[in-house]
Every structure is written in C-alpha cells, then in structure tokens.
Amino acid sequence: MTGIIWAVASGLLLSLQNLFNANVDRKAGMWTTTTLVLGMGFAAALLLGLAAEGAALFQLAGMEPWFAFSGLIGIGVVTCMVQGVKRLGPTFAVSLALCSQLAFAMLWDSMGWLGLERVPLEPTRLAGVLLLAAGIVVFKLGGRGRSKERVLPAAAEAGQDIA
Amino acid sequence: MRNGVGIIMKGILAAIAAGGFITLQGAANSVIGEAIGTWQAAALTQLTGFVGALALALLLRGLQPRTLLAVKPVYATGGALGALIIFGNVTAIHQIGITLTTSLVLLGQLALTFLIEWRGWLGSKRISVGPAQAAGFALMAGGVLLLAIG
C-alpha cells in the first residue's frame, strides 16, 4: 500500500514541479530558471542522500566519465518542459511530453540502443501510447466552451495559496 | 494569428523534445544508479547539470539572479521536489514493481496537472472543461492503464 502511495505522490510532485518551474520562468527567464532548478535539485539530492547514506554518498567506485556528462541531459529536460508548458498550457504540454517519452522508450527498447537488451514491440503498449495520443487530440481539438479567454484572478490567487 | 501558430508549433516541438530527453535521462540514470547508487547518481547528474546550465547562462548572458527576488519562494523549490520524487519512485518500485509505479506516476501527474489547469491554480490560465476535455482525459488515462497491463 505504501508503494502505491509513494508512486502517486511522485506523480503529484512531478506535476507541481512543472508548474512551479513555469512560474519561475515567467519572472526570471529560461536560463536563470534552468540554473536555479538544477541547483536546487542538486542541493536537495545532496541533503537527502546524506541523510540516507551518510558519508557513503561520496563513494563513487564504479564511476565512469560519461556519468558526469549525462547530467547535461537535465538542461534539455528543464528548458524544453518549461517552454512547452509556457506555450501550450500544462495539460497539453505534459500529456504530449508523456506520449513522446513513451514513444521514444518503445523505439529505444525495440532498437536495443545503448547496449540495452532488445525488447520486442508489445501490441498492448503500442495501443496504450496510441490511446494516450488520441486522448491528447480529443482534449485539445474538442469543442471549447465558455471560459477559454476568461482568466479569473481570484481563482488563480486561491490556487497559489494551496501551494 | 500566424504568430500564435508559431508559438504553438514551438511549444509542441519543445514538449516532444522534453519527452525524448526524459527517456534518455531515465535510461542513463538507471545505468548510473546501478553503478554508483541512486542518490550518488541524482546528486552527481544534477551537479553537472547545474554547472552546465550556469556556464550556458553566463555565456548567453541570460543569468539574472535578481529577477528571482520577484518569484514566490514556494515556486523556487520546484527543483528540490526532484529529490522527493526520486525517493518516492525508488521506494515504490521496490515495493510494487516498475510497471505499476510508472503507470501510477503518469496518472498522478496527468490528473493533478489537469485539475490545476481546470481550476486555474498556480497561475495557470483556466481551460474550459467540456465533454471533449473529459473524454480526452479519460482516453489518456485509459492509455496509461493499457501501458500498465502491456
């Protein structure tokens, strides 16, 4: 049961993280935001890592040089996600990114890139991604009703208090 | 109008690229985590990411730390949530397996994002939610569930 709670909590936190970052971007711009996000991420991982493992955190036996460079991928993740949310709105951007993520993962698995074991394309998984994509299209292109242009400042404020 | 389409196209490309980067990051982090440990991987990759971003920000003259004074402090903690997310993920995978974990993470993320945009929370523009949006969201959730089974 706790596993389920942790998994759902991670998803909720991911959602908050994307929206928090988009709010920083509004005031601080892309590069200041990305630098802050990764800096905060490092500080928090260092603190939680120290709490969990103590000095063993600094034992990097088995370390290879490319491990360090792979951290640069995080720059792409943060900048692209923030730009997507800013231009498309959170739900459209997040669902599109999820779809792309899953499609890339399937492509990756079926090609066996980066020395990983080749995993054949599962019809159920493919159907899942297609359904997700169909959902995005319906969500985005489906009839739009009344309050599209009407931004209610009161509601936005109330929401900010929740955070 | 042309401008609006341009913005949407750029947004779509950014979101698709983000998905690609997330997959790449996930694959790299799992290899690195196996080799040196989860927390070591998280701290190391974010440290080098931070240094890289800082260097790029300085190079492109995009670093404006003063602007952060105008940011609500809670929003500035977005990056730090990453550590909790990693902890939650690792704990969940350990207890309920990777497939169920991934599906629940995706569903949780999608559901809260939808709720926030629907209510216009956290400074997001409210979206109108009609039958089409509800159906679209249900399809997305169904897709995630299929992925869980598959």
**How much of the polypeptide of chain B forms β-strand, as a percent range?**
under 5%
Shape of chain A: globular
Shape of chain B: globular
Arithmetic mean pLDDT of chain A: 85
How many helix segments of chain A? 7
Q: How many strands in all of chain B?
A: 0
What would you call the quaternary organization?
Answer: heterodimer
Distance between the first and last residues' Cα of chain A: 26 Å
Strand fraction band of chain A? under 5%
Q: Tell me the structural class of chain A.
A: mainly alpha
Unreliable stretches of chain B (pLDDT < 50, length at least 5) are none
Rg of chain A (CA only): 19 Å
Structural class of chain B: mainly alpha
Instruction: Encode the helix/strand succession of chain A as letters.
Output: HHHHHHH
State the helical fraction of chain A: over 70%
Q: Give the tally of β-strands of chain A.
A: 0
SSE order of chain B in H/E notation? HHHHHH
Distance between the termini of chain B: 42 Å
Give a quick account of the main beta sheet of chain A: strands, pairing sense, barrel closure: none
Please compute the radius of gyration of chain B using only Cα atoms. Answer: 18 Å
Pfam families (chain A): DMT_YdcZ
Transmembrane segments (chain A): 6-24, 36-60, 66-85, 92-114, 126-143
Organism (chain A): Paenibacillus pasadenensis
Keywords (chain A): Membrane, Transmembrane, Transmembrane helix
